[in-house]
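In response to a reviewer's request, we include the raw inputs and outputs for one of the modeled complexes. The two entities were modeled together in a single run.
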Amino acid sequence: MNEDEREIVEWVNEYFNDKERWNLIGALQALQKQFGYLPKVGRRAVAARLNMSPANVHAVATFYNQFRFVPPGKYEIKVCLGTACAVKQGKLILDHWKRRLGIDVGEVTEDLEYSLDRVDCVGCCTLAPVTMVGDETLGDMAVTKVDGILLRNQIQKEQEARKAAAQQSQNKPD
Amino acid sequence: MNADWNIDAAREAFKALRDKSHECCELLSNEEASLVLVGAATCGIAAGALEVAEAFKDELEARAIEAKVFEVGCMGHCYAEPMAVVKRPGYPPFVYHHLDKGKARRLVRKFFTEEDPDFENFLGALGDGEDFPTMSMAPRYGGEHRRLLKRCGVHDPKNIEQAVELGAYDGLMEALETGPKKVIESIRESGLRGLGGAGFPTWRKWDACRRRESDEKYIVCNADEGDPGAFMDRTILESDTHAVIAGMIIGGLAIGAKKGYVYVRSEYPLAVDRLKKAIVDARSVNLLGESVLGSGFAFDISVVMGAGAFVCGEETALLASVEGRRGMPRTRPPFPAESGLWGKPTVINNVKTFANVSAILAEGPETFASLGTQTSKGTAVFALAGKVLNTGLVEVPMGATLREVVMDIGGGVPSGKKFKAVQIGGPSGGCLPESLLDTPVDFDALSKAGSMMGSGGMVILDEDNCMVETARFFLEFLQRESCGKCTFCRIGTRHMLDLLTKITEGEGEPEDIDKLQRLAEDVKAGSLCNLGKTAANPVLTTLRFFREEYEAHIKNKECAARQCIALTAYYILPDKCARGCDACVGSCPTEAIWTHEKKRIKIIEQDKCVNCGSCLPVCPPDYDAIVRISPLSELPPSLPRPKKEVSDGKG
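The model returned the following structure tokens for the whole complex.
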């Protein structure tokens, strides 16, 4: 068990110290909130604390759409395909994200920058078609807007890199 | 009168609570007070309501104007968000739409300092009056009958005093006075039916559960609004939270339960927060707890978050999920009223059903029963979405026709397009064509037409929507959400989906329609819960009313709505192309459009085109050169793209 895994197990044990919380779905939700996904060691630790088999925990976790088994990317892209968005051609937006990121739904890009998911309605049907980037809700999406978002993030990343480089060169003489 | 409880104490406690609330909320009824109410439910916040509220506060403070800014719930006019109601002495309350920070500041300056109500973003005045155009004069508002939504958007749902002042808990006192039997009798007289979609008489559930002997019973509120495109329950939870809590307490009192659960989607974080706060507030004033209002009747509520599974809207699946298991339905009987949560008698009702209860008891059942049709009483709330002008929540009396809802209140289809169908009842509802628009909104009339009331999602489709693709979309959703317990639902929906996908991709064969029809009937017969039983509805209704579209897809490989990607192509008319303009080239995300060196016309390279449609709106209306063509056999041959230009890639 490495450092990260130990941290997860410790967190799970801490969580269950409160007897009130002995509910499987609630525990998985808390685990995901903490780590962004359900790591395998975490699921096993939950199973051990609730006296269940890991298979049972896995069965429940895979049943519900909320749970994910791979870490999310830095930018979590969620394309809404609820009825209103579907009627307004949200599928084209999803296709374009796939095309640009080179990943399928439920996957993460190799550099862990982007993860792509589809969701069923985020509740702003009047802004359809909608994409969520992290917590930001972007309405009236178009395929060209997808390119715009990618460019914006790329520029942001380059700026940060430059800033960091500048900082480093500044610090060096000291 | 019920002998078990200390009614005198309750009466006194309730009177004290009302008096205290009245004092706290003096502002709301005081004609001399200036108020700004900003609609801040999920939809409003997404549109920027919190910034607008901040701007109001800043500007009022900067100008030292005494006025209170409240964040209130949602009025349901989603098309107009962010909205605010401004009350000033001497004027009726004015409603403003599409505000932003700048407009909020300008409104403060103009209205509060220059006495100019600033009509630029003016929607209408609330109430009656002749001096200003009122909201009730507009069909979008005047055509409605607001019962469930009456407190939504006019009070701060986070403030329990305001909810009490506006009567959210009045029915609870009535219930304590009259006792369980009379409560159920009143609900029976009112004719209230389950508003989650099934329409089962509420009193029958309650009565069956009350008669059951058990040491423990439960009340469960079903707020797992899984239908994509429906948000009535969310709005009520966010904007009139206390009405739901009051309804649950009354339900607990009627059946003899001490504990209630609200099962709410985790996708509704704001609703979860507001519920939790409302429960804490209700406990602090003794509306929940060991002794409700000091009467000796104990009741408490917990919030359980769902984890995203459409099937959990089914009551037995929901119970399994609350217990922490996979949300799979089981056979009924036994019904939950006999054996529900942890094997104890349980009443499960939808958010809207509970939200109705307190008002029914407070006003008397006759008022509710006087609305609606012979078999469906009260009002129906719909979430209008899709190709309709005034999207948002609409509440009409049962029995209003679909035409009134879609055309009058909804304002019809925008941009001069032709109405095609209305899809009612969520994914497993049905698509009804124009010829059935005079169907009244009523549980039985809608089922007869092949659709269903469902939870109240209403999606309007216009001529650009392909019905085969629509059926495929809903079936894809249901297929994914099938829990997998029943073979017909698990495998049958998969086969149906495959057939529909085949048809939309132009691979359909003539016998596929019959296969679909047969499968649909079998899935309906062979499934346990309503997800499977109604999964075939979108296919059956589109087959019934739009069969010619299926046939065109199969025989001619034609999609009349030009929506199915595999059957449609974009084409630039060479005679109309302006040649000098490069708008389409710049808009194309895949560099599929190129310029012919000699003729200067733009040409789409079909192999590269992904049918995204970006070029269509950018072509200036003077030229209008881009068209969509289906079937593909009608696509004129294009000139071949020179190799050099491809490698260059910049054009």
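As requested, we also summarize the result in words. The CA atoms of residues 72 and 155 of chain B lie 5 Å apart. The first helix of chain B runs from residue 7 to 24.
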